[in-house]
Amino acid sequence: MSVRQACKAFGLSETCYRYVVGKRDEKNGEVAQWLLRLTDNHRTWGFGLCFLYLRNVKGYGWNHKRVYRIYRELELNLRIKPRRRLVRQAPVPLVVPTALNQVWSMDFMHDQLADGRSIRLFNVIDDFNREALGIEIDFSLPSERVIRSLNQIIGWRGKPVAIRCDNGPEYLSAAITAWAARTGIKLEYIQPGKPQHNAYVERFNRTVRYEWLSLYHWENLDCLASTTNAADDN
């Protein structure tokens, strides 16, 4: 039986039967060498960047299916990026003051007006009895405003030994650090990413947000509803 008849009997294409694998292996080897070279020199490159480099920069006309098949056979798609390990510091216990003006806490809050404009609130409390010493509200509160608010509180309350705060840019500025050194007040910065170390003022912020500001919003809505009903009656 001839090859043509045998291929017809088994439903096999003569092209597949007569295909020589040698040339294909040479091309695949060249593709594999390029992929290994690219992924070794450029560890952040995936298949897309490697294929675009071979097609557009080097001018190879290899089909993307062939390149991707070899890319997977080489298991280059299983590369795992090493995770950047964070340096975990030992937790610092929260110091409980035993008298007034030992430690104050200050922090910023953000809220939004009915017209969409953002406002900031600068809150200061005494950690001993959780007393609210001051709340400064404005659209912008730079370091100069923070210093002015603290000076006003010190004028009637007295000077604290230390003030606990986070690592915000207003507290790290040269103006407020110079003010603290001039007045003899210690700035106690909490650990980065640890708001629980400033738990007293964070709890106060929650009260301000969910009990005071929310009540203010509901009162505004009630006034708006009563005004609308009066206009409808007229």
Automatic annotation (TrEMBL):
What organism, scientifically named, is this protein from?
Mycetohabitans sp
Looking at the record, the residues that make up the Integrase catalytic domain are: 89-234
InterPro entries in alphabetical order: Integrase_cat-core, RNaseH-like_sf, RNaseH_sf, Transpos_IS3
| Database matches in Pfam families | rve
GO MF assignments: nucleic acid binding
Q: Name one GO biological process term.
A: DNA integration
What is this protein identified as? Answer: Mobile element protein
Q: Which residues form a coiled coil?
A: none
